[in-house]
Amino acid sequence: MSNAFVFPSIHDFPPFYTFQPTQTTWQNQVALWSEIILSYYRHHKLYRLELSESLNSELFHNKGINRRLKLDTLQMIIDEMVKQGMAEWDSPPKKTTAIIYWRKPEEWATLINNWVFEAGITNSILTVYEIAHGDTTEGLEFHKLDQIILMKSLDILVKKGVAQTFQGTSADDIGVKFFGIN
Amino acid sequence: MDRFSRVELTSTLRPVLNEGETILAIQDNVGLYDGNEKAAGYMNGKVYLTSHRIIYVDSEQPNTNSIGVEIRFIKGREFYTGFVKSSPKITLKFSESNNNNSSPFYHQLNDSSTSTLSSASSTWICPICSYSNTPQIFKCQLCGVKKTENLASITPPPASSLSNTSASSQQQITTNQTSPIKKTQGDTGIECPQCTFLNHPDMVICEICDAELGTNIKINEEEILGSRVGGKSKDDFIRLAFRNGGAGTFYDKMKQAITMKEWEKTIEPSKSPIDFDPVRGGISGIMRNAEENKKEQDEYLNQAFKDLESLKTITEKMESAESEEVSTFKTNLFKLGISNPVTKDEAGSIYHKELARELAEFLENTLDKDNGMMSLTDIYCIFNRARGVALISPNDLYKACSLFERLNLPLRLRKYESGLLVVHDDQIAQRILEYIKLRGSLSGIELASIEQKSVVLVNEQLQMVEAKGLICRDESIEGIRYYDNLINHFVWER
Lengths: 182, 494
What we know:
By secondary structure, chain A is of the alpha+beta class. Chain A has helices spanning 23-44, 51-54, 71-83, 105-119, 128-133, 147-160; strands at residues 48-50, 61-62, 67-68, 87-89, 97-100, 125-127, 163-166, 175-178.
């Protein structure tokens, strides 16, 4: 937690923590919540949302007005975000953990590919661990990127024919070779 | 169309009727024709037939395009049953004399009204083929060209007006001479835009090259349409096109209305209600009255029990005192009365819509006393009481009430969970919003104490306003509180 995230004023509005039965109001409420979640996750570089755990975090529990979002309401919000491609359930149909895409896998894929170009490491084999946790990626946006998101974006690159993966002994040992095609 | 005048409308868009005027029939989806042409802006509306007038209320722009004509101007009528795609029409013809008064154009041309009137009986000569036609025929028998309006001046004036030697008739002749000259100047023909051939002014298409000559005519038409109400018109008749049927009954009713001549009956001045005395008025006045009555009755009772004999005479007085009360009650109810109840016969297919409008007018005054809402059963009672005649069925009332929203009337019918049907005004939402703005938030119990209503009822109203998206709820251990709907308007600027 480097610097504190500034919540919008609606975060202090008590009805914001209650499921609104009116359709239009609910849609607006969901839109605002997903916007706040995305910005909060981007701000803190978070990727995973454990629902029951995060209900105690400052994001969903406003101690100032003593309001807390309910689990089922949060699930509905995440459901809505999944529909719009801003999130994904980690292991559906269980709705306990979600991955928040404050940047979509496609966007991550282009970022990684660009980095490969700039670093001049085309046609050499890298491990997945190196990309996410290696010294060379220190300070880059996808440093400490979530394993699942990273794999997804690598898959996209493979499908495009830009890269190739090699099976390793463990998840971190998977090798990637970039062909240097943009 | 020049005999039409604007018609005032009530808040529910029904025409305001004059005293002694009654509605005989109503038909919707009716269009007006000025002569043979469709009247722009008057193509779809409701037509009311009253004992005095025929009123057209436009459905799109009721406030500007609502006009009426008095039946007494109607001198002739025709009924056309309709064929394939053309809808049944009623033609209304108007008297000639009135036309001259209202149109300056006619004044100028026919200053010598005697000559035109007499010439009307003579034959007219077709400007195209020079065939002399009988005056009853409006199209040339030989070539089918329409008779022009100013043709009257072409026919030679009869000897009677020429032989007149007075100075005024001299002037007549000069005007008679100048007008045809003007006409020929204006009628030199329309130049074809394609081949520059000078066509006869009556032509629509160039005789040489078949190009359209529309421009001049279009301008003319626009002028006529612009001066629709109160302005002159070419033809002396209008048509009502009944696109939704109902023309037959309307025509029958109109015939009745014309024969009844309701407008010739003198209107008896209605008795004005007893003058209001400001000193004796108000609650104190009522209390004083009641006290006096009580004293009187006490006296009667005292006297009555003193002597049985006198009791007999005094009972009459007591009875009269009682009946006085009843009569005031009746007059109070009568004040609520509806002078012109809508009935199924007159309104036909739009019966329920009209009923809803009437009901809305009626409830405007009545609902205020009851906190802006009333159960449907109560409304059924007082509404039928007010109508007096032509009582309506509960089903009709229900149907009429469910039309409030669609007709944009300031009332709503609501069915509560318990099955209770209530009509309430549209103001409750505004009031709730105002309370919330004052206090920040509002619970059902708080609103109930402000509005002096039951909590159940108030909760229903809150939910209704919430469903409109005007307020939003906050559920906590303290219960449900309602807030102004910030969620709907919030924009997060980062």
